[in-house]
Amino acid sequence: MAALRIGVLASGRGSNLEAIIGAVRRGELDAEVAVVISDVADARALDVARKAGVEALYVDPEKKKARMSAAAEQRIIDELRKRDVGLVALAGFMRILSSEFVAAFKMRILNIHPSLLPSFPGLGVQKKALEYGVKFSGCTVHFVDEGVDTGPIIIQAAVPVLDDDTVESLSARILEEEHRIYPEAIRRFAAGRLKIEGRRVILLPEGA
């Protein structure tokens, strides 16, 4: 069976992209990063892709708001389909996808979010967690649906919030866990070990 072809959408530094590429290179993930697409022309993620020998594309979002234009979304869909992408991984992609985009890759889009969803969706997550006074934060890999950070949860990792934490220190520790659980979630997807029952995602054992 051919390895899973992944299309990564990224808007920033691409650290989760590096984690995915690293997992592939180490043989921990039976997949191939087929293309990296960004809505930011000078995103570091594009440089990360090129240095790794992965095709990197910039698509003009045509809008400064949270959503791209319909035409820009369609260009991304076309580029992903052209490369026979079986999974779309959002890695710091700062756009809300339309229902049409989600439908084009239904239950084949994953996202990594820096909180223990359903707590603190959206932006400014660590600041919200510190202000609320939670004792644990963390990160979540989930399927993407039509809402904002509302799709079925695949894997989570908890991170203690320390009394002297700042937004920066908490973010750094959470990011370490993101780099660990995102490739693992993709590995389970590639192996067909995710069973979806309503909102629940059942993690099937090896060989299931």
Question: Can you offer a commentary on this structure?
Answer:
By secondary structure, the protein is an alpha/beta fold. It has two domains: 1-106, Formyl transferase, N-terminal domain (Rossmann fold); 112-208, Formyl transferase, N-terminal domain (Rossmann fold), CATH 3.40.50.170. The chain is built from six helices and nine strands; from the N terminus they run βαβαβαβαβαββαββ. The chain has helices spanning 15-25, 44-51, 70-82, 99-104, 125-132, 167-190; strands spanning 4-10, 31-38, 56-58, 87-90, 109-113, 136-143, 153-160, 194-197, 200-203. Helix 1 (15-25) links the parallel strand 1 (4-10) and strand 2. Helix 1 (15-25) runs parallel beside helix 6 (167-190). The chain is globular and about 50 Å long. 39% of the residues are buried.
Summary, kept brief:
A hairpin with a 2-residue loop joins strand 8 and strand 9. With about 210 residues, this protein is an alpha/beta fold.
